[in-house]
Amino acid sequence: MGFGDLFLVALEPVLKVLIITGVGSFLALKRIDLLGPSARHHLNNIVYYVFGPAMVASYLAETITMESLLQLWFMPVNILLTFVIGSILAWMLNKIARTPQHLRGLVVGCCSAGNLGNLLLIIIPGVCNESNSPFGDPSLCTASGNAYVSLSMAIGGIYIWSYVYIIMRISINKNINPDKSGENVESSPREISGSSTESSTEPLLPSVVCESNSTVVQLPHEESSEKVSVGCRFKQKIRGFMGEINLKMLFAPSTIAAIFGFTIGTVPLLRNAVIGDDAPLRVVESSIYLLGEACIPALTLIIGANLLKGLRSSGVGAMVVLGIILVRYVALPLIGIVVIKAARSLGLVGADSLYQFILMLQFALPPAMSVGTITQLFEAGQSECSIVMLWSYAVSAFSLTLWSAFFMWLVA
């Protein structure tokens, strides 16, 4: 199969995403106002608390077994590599572009966290169902693809709401609470929860208690670094980092749903009771699956509505936006090819071409929309995030098609 045929195979699912995204942008126009700020807020909550967890739980329960989980062990490592390598490239971009402090966490989030959920759930079935798909029988391809994408979505959500959330929270807090000559300034980022307006009141950098034998010494922040031991400074950094961890975010609804899905899928007794045409509780699984099917169109409409904000926003430099695009669509995909080829040669990845394709594609996806959700939670960097998302997703229509075709050509 030639590259031109593979390009056409990769183009159709991307066009589906663009069409639904365009509908979302149209519904967000002031003349229509069906997806205005209030509607987006409520729809986003429904996706976050209902549709998303239902999709994760149903897909994982149906497609993941203990055997498949052991075979797919490299995927969590691969996703972690995308986050780590993206963060390193983001750090370099922040240094080169001299990104303002309050936007550095946003740059790290956009460079490290890819859209590992709904985009793959549209692209992979679309590729499998093409008549000239290089991945064989459409039904087998779709079943295997759903298993791979479900695991990708679950692992990606855990990384986003732990690693990326903490990085962005630290960056925003540093901008809100600069250390001014020993003043104890308290942070107040907006926490998650529907209508809650409570603010976090713990100090950003808590003082560290260092113990030496039986003597306890309290070290204030304004004390010079020369008077503080290396071990004490390390404790201070660790406590500051641990103070940023939000267990409520770490155990987000999608994470809890992933745990339930893994449990049902990998425990034979539960799997036989819930999954299958003869399962006594199959109506429960089918109901959850029906709810989960609404996640992809709803979330894609929200993406389109949020991208419209980018046309009306300003405040982020062109160099930062261009840098994020180069990181996500040039540097990361090239590094991803090297990583997967090396893993394949070392026997860490099997011969399944669809599996290799998805592993490579994880390096070439646009930024995760959850990054925008995090900026909304802290009410900081929202307009800048809209600009980044607008241009990133506009460019992804071309880059994702080209990289998908090239990856298929490599693995087919």
Automatic annotation (TrEMBL):
Segments traversing the membrane: 6-29, 41-61, 73-93, 105-127, 147-168, 245-267, 287-308, 320-342, 354-378, 390-411
Protein transport recorded as keyword: no
GO CC annotations on file: endoplasmic reticulum membrane
Ranges annotated as biased composition (Low complexity): 186-204
Subcellular location: Endoplasmic reticulum membrane
Annotated region (Disordered), positions in chain: 179-204
Membrane topology: Multi-pass membrane protein
Coiled coil: none
InterPro entries linked to this entry: Mem_transp_PIN-like, PILS1/3/4/5/7
This protein's UniProt keywords: Auxin signaling pathway, Endoplasmic reticulum, Membrane, Transmembrane, Transmembrane helix, Transport
Signal peptide extent: none
One GO process term, biological-process aspect: auxin-activated signaling pathway
Main localization of the protein described in the UniProt heading: endoplasmic reticulum
The protein's role, per its UniProt record: Involved in cellular auxin homeostasis by regulating auxin metabolism. Regulates intracellular auxin accumulation at the endoplasmic reticulum and thus auxin availability for nuclear auxin signaling.
Family designation: Belongs to the auxin efflux carrier (TC 2.A.69.2) family.
Protein's name according to its UniProt entry: Protein PIN-LIKES 3-like
Source organism: Punica granatum (Pomegranate)
Phylogenetic lineage: Eukaryota, Viridiplantae, Streptophyta, Embryophyta, Tracheophyta
